[in-house]
């Protein structure tokens, strides 16, 4: 590792400790204080963009820095990954030496790789917001409180199925090994770590919950569960909440580090307003602006994620926080959307509602090919009857029309080895 990178790592740890209380306090600021804070940060990023970033230079005369408000952002176009990938240096500050930058790669399971340079304290800010998310439930935790983490870890054959990150005090358990054979190791780690926080993918927490339930084991020590990176299905949430009886808070973010949002104990997704600005376009795509990235300013960046819009704007959350609530929930990535005959997109929530009717289905995976045909894999809690399968087929045809449909009952829905996640819906349809 280069000396400058080692120093950066160290200074990011220092920054985490110095800044944590300030970030923690931000969640209780008033709406006007939050707006002022955002205006200041946006103004500084836009000044850098129009003076030093080739793509944004033509907008210098258009932005009113004298009477600046958040509305100035609307003068800039929406940009997307393809546009940036075609000419990345056009989007990076001219006064930065590209060879010395540190990068964050996006790990998407499909599409070409894409990487974004990180601003100096980017890693620390991720860690800080990760810890702050825990305080959105009923309980407060100190920085470096222990947490069990069932994600982002795939041990190789023969390696231990847990590892410790001492700096963050995370106790990782493999999401690939949640079964009867390894359960004693899981229980030992819960016990030893004394964690009150459990972090994971919705699917990994769900599978663990089913296993513990089946074995009649209770783990009352857990007070807060944080899920992220996959769709939180209503079925998952119901099973998880009923068993653990604690706050189950979902988190949304992307690898590009533009915006993040997390649920509070009342279920609202609060945008981290000190981190980014979130807009929805007319098709409810999330358009994100980073308030931190001053190396490659990502301004009005099309994330390819679709939100479930709010029914009422400007709702006040019962939790008392005035951090904005940009959407009701996340529908999925754009490549998670299914299409009916005629290539009309169908909201995935329709399928989640359909799957709710089949309590004996443990997990499912729907793949739509380019010709719109559907292959569906399902795993069972209890054996499905022929009537269940017929009803499932009828339900899918009702939503997608008369597309070719194959249903396979499988033992397990596997995790993707590249991304670690379990995809629920995958579409190869080009629109
Ligand atoms: Zn709230």
Question: In words, what does this structure look like?
Answer:
This is Phenylacetate-CoA ligase. The chain is of the alpha/beta class. It has 2 domains: 248 residues, ANL, N-terminal domain (Rossmann fold, 3-Layer(aba) Sandwich); 90 residues, GMP Synthetase, Chain A, domain 3 (2-Layer Sandwich), CATH 3.30.300. The protein is built from 9 helices and 20 strands. Strands 4-5-3-6-7-8-9-10 form an 8-stranded mixed sheet. A 4-stranded antiparallel sheet has the order 11-12-13-14, with no helix packed on it. A 4-stranded mixed sheet has the order 19-18-17-20, covered by helices on one side. The two termini are 43 Å apart. The site of zinc ion has 7 residues, from loops.
| Main sheet strand line-up | 4-5-3-6-7-8-9-10
CA-based gyration radius: 22 Å
CATH class of the largest domain, named Alpha Beta
SSE topology string:
HHHEEHEEEHEHEHEEEEEEEEEHEEHEE
Can you name the CATH architecture of the largest domain? 3-Layer(aba) Sandwich
Organism: Geojedonia litorea
InterPro entries: ANL_N_sf, CapK_Type1_Caps_Biosynth
Protein name: Phenylacetate-CoA ligase
